[in-house]
Design a protein that fits this description.
Bound molecules: 6-phosphogluconic acid
Low-confidence stretches: 1-5
Number of helices: 19
Mean pLDDT: 96
Helix content: 40-55%
Strand order of the largest sheet: 3-2-1-4-5-6-7
Strand content: 5-15%
Length: 484
């Protein structure tokens, strides 16, 4: 424990890498004195050398000095790699901290790890906050979207600081107390799942234009540029426009043509899908997006299939290109609505099960800027949850269902085009299948229930009376028994 006399920093950051540096600078620029510690002491020193003029930094070569520099109740943000490094940082902090102090994990951490870490600190009086941070390096510096979980008491201390550095929309900070324990990291995980789906959908739209409509890259770029004005207006459409407009310096080719097509992933998309499977909530657009990345990286399998004597030719689309572009726009909008709906529906369900009480209207508002999935239609998502905070699915909201119904004929055409031409659009197709299943009224899963009863005596409900039933399939008369 160190003397309070030396404490001069409002907040500390452990891990002065790319994100740590940006966040430290953002905090300092907003008048908060920032203590900085990194395993490599030069990192903290460089922060002062390179950016000392932006505010007050207190670099610390030792963790004891770092903790001593923090004024009580102390607040320390950990921004080190997930897993063992995060555990080590928490442990060393706990040894030096007092009840009432706050440890924030600002990394992309699986929310169940956050829950376990929070539970392990119960009884110490130290608050543990799992905080989602979105927006990358630029966001962290200029205004991220921040999603802290943890206790309401801890938010009273950290909220004003975090809100001061977050992105703002009409003066409203893109930061909220999401809910207790793992709620912050849970919504960040879902944010990333939506991010995966949105990126995949945009890539599919690009591919359909390029290969089915035989459009040139600059023309596709112009289409994306024009989509910025409507309901598709979003950060990801913006950067897509920019990327497609970029020419490779070395070859003079469109940049997109020199980038290797194996997409990486650090795991948050897969976490979303695994979690969704565990809690039984379908997120097929996110799952397809995650699998599409895996498939893109499956080099051996792809080569093996490429070496078969199969004609890879694509059947081009027939008809007016402008009409097809409009259809792809509508397919993208409808699919994107479904992807966001799947994410918000998952949060709605988890919030109920975990009793997090997440305010979905507010959550939609803090994603309107700073984060990767920022998009114009988050305003409508916010409106939908204001109108009905218990909305079971976002596609059940009037505004969204009207948009999806308007897009439906074009969406079907585009999914059919993908199948008939041989240009895969798995996220478009699975979103459509998800939407059709939701509106089907009656699903063929009745047959699955019958099959389960047939071979496994799993029993079934009937549509016409209460109770559990089993048919004695092995007997010629097929008598039905009521089990409960
Ligand atoms: C954000 C992003 C970020 C994420 C990267 C990389 O909100 O700023 O979601 O947190 O780590 O986008 O993710 P992948 O490597 O999995 O694509």
């Amino acid at each position: 424990m160190s003397s309070e006399r030396t404490a001069s920093a409002d907040i500390g950051i452990i891990g002065i890498g790319v994100m740590g540096t940006s966040l430290a600078r953002n905090l300092a620029r907003h008048g908060h004195a920032v203590a900085a510690y990194d395993l490599d002491p030069e990192q903290a020193q460089d922060l002062v050398t390179d950016h000392g003029s932006e505010g007050t930094f207190v670099p610390a070569a030792e963790l004891d000095d770092f903790v001593a520099a923090l004024r009580a109740p102390r607040v320390a943000i950990i921004l080190v790699p997930a897993g063992a490094p995060t555990d080590a940082a928490i442990e060393t902090l706990v040894q030096r901290m007092d009840p009432g102090d706050i440890i924030i994990d600002g990394g992309n951490t699986l929310y169940t790890d956050t829950q376990a870490r929070g539970a392990a600190l119960e009884g110490t009086g130290i608050h543990f906050v799992g905080m989602g941070v979105s927006g990358g390096e630029q966001g962290a510096l200029l205004g991220p979207s921040l999603m802290p979980g943890g206790s309401a008491e801890s938010y009273e201390r950290i909220g004003p600081m975090l809100e001061s550095i977050a992105a703002k929309v009409d003066g409203e900070p893109c930061c909220m107390h999401v809910g207790p324990d793992g709620a912050g990291h849970f919504v960040k995980m879902i944010h990333n799942g939506i991010e995966y789906a949105d990126m995949q959908l945009i890539a599919e739209a690009y591919d359909l234009m390029r290969r089915c409509l035989r459009m040139k890259v600059p023309d596709i770029r112009d289409v994306f540029a024009s989509w910025r004005d409507g309901h598709l207006d979003s950060y990801l459409i913006d950067i897509t426009t920019d990327i497609l407009g970029h020419t490779d310096h070395a070859t003079g080719k469109p940049f997109i043509d020199v980038v290797a097509d194996a997409a990486g992933q650090k795991g948050t998309g897969a976490w979303t899908v695994k979690t969704a499977l565990d809690v039984g909530i379908p997120v097929p657009a996110i799952a397809e997006a995650t699998f599409a990345r895996s498939l893109s990286g499956a080099a051996l399998e792809r080569v093996a299939v490429e070496e078969l004597d199969i004609d890879p030719a694509v059947t081009p689309a027939e008809g007016d290109v402008a009409e097809w572009v409009e259809a792809i726009h509508n397919a993208l909008l409808a699919s994107k609505i479904c992807a966001y709906a799947q994410g918000f529906d998952a949060i709605q369900l988890a919030s109920e099960e975990e009793e997090w009480n997440i305010d979905l209207d507010h959550l939609a508002r803090i994603w309107r800027d700073g984060c990767i999935i920022r998009a114009g239609f988050l305003n409508y998502i916010s409106d939908a949850y204001i109108a009905d905070p218990e909305l079971p699915s976002l596609v059940g909201d009037e505004w969204f269902s009207e948009r999806v119904e308007e897009c439906l004929p074009a969406w079907r055409k585009v999914v059919a085009l993908s199948a008939s031409s041989g240009v895969p659009a798995p996220a478009f197709a699975s979103s459509l299948a998800w939407y059709d299943a939701l509106r089907a009224g009656r699903l063929p899963t009745a047959l699955i229930q019958a099959q389960r009863d047939y071979f496994g005596s799993h029993s079934y409900n009937r549509v016409d009376k209460p109770g559990r039933f089993h048919t004695r399939w092995e007997l010629p008369e097929r008598p039905e028994e009521q089990w409960t």
